[in-house]
Amino acid sequence: MHKHVGAVFLAGYQASGRSSRYRENYLKMHGAHAPLDRLAYCALVHVNKDKAKARKNSELLSGT
């Protein structure tokens, strides 16, 4: 069995659902739950006092 690591880097919020799909597919393929050390995720984050500006800027960063 290959012990690859699924990784998502510098992606916006829309990419965060990939981890659950990865775990579901790993279980289907291997008949066991994915080890916790098999997934890496690094998100883009933008913080602003104005919630609307924060959302707009984070969408610009992620290309959505």
Summarize this structure briefly:
This protein has helices at residues 18-30, 51-62; strands at 6-11, 39-43.
Descriptive terms for the model:
two-stranded parallel sheet; single chain; 2 strands; elongated; alpha+beta
- Largest sheet entry: 2 strands, parallel
Order of helices and strands: EHEH
**Low-pLDDT windows of residues:** none
Number of domains: 1
Distance between the termini: 36 Å
Query: What's the rounded overall pLDDT mean?
Result: 75
How does this structure look, described?
The chain has 64 residues and is an alpha+beta fold. The mean pLDDT is 75. The chain is built from 2 helices and 2 strands, in the order βαβα. The relative contact order is 0.25. It has one domain. Helix content is 39%, strand content 17%. The chain has a two-stranded parallel ribbon with strand order 1-2. It is elongated and about 45 Å long.
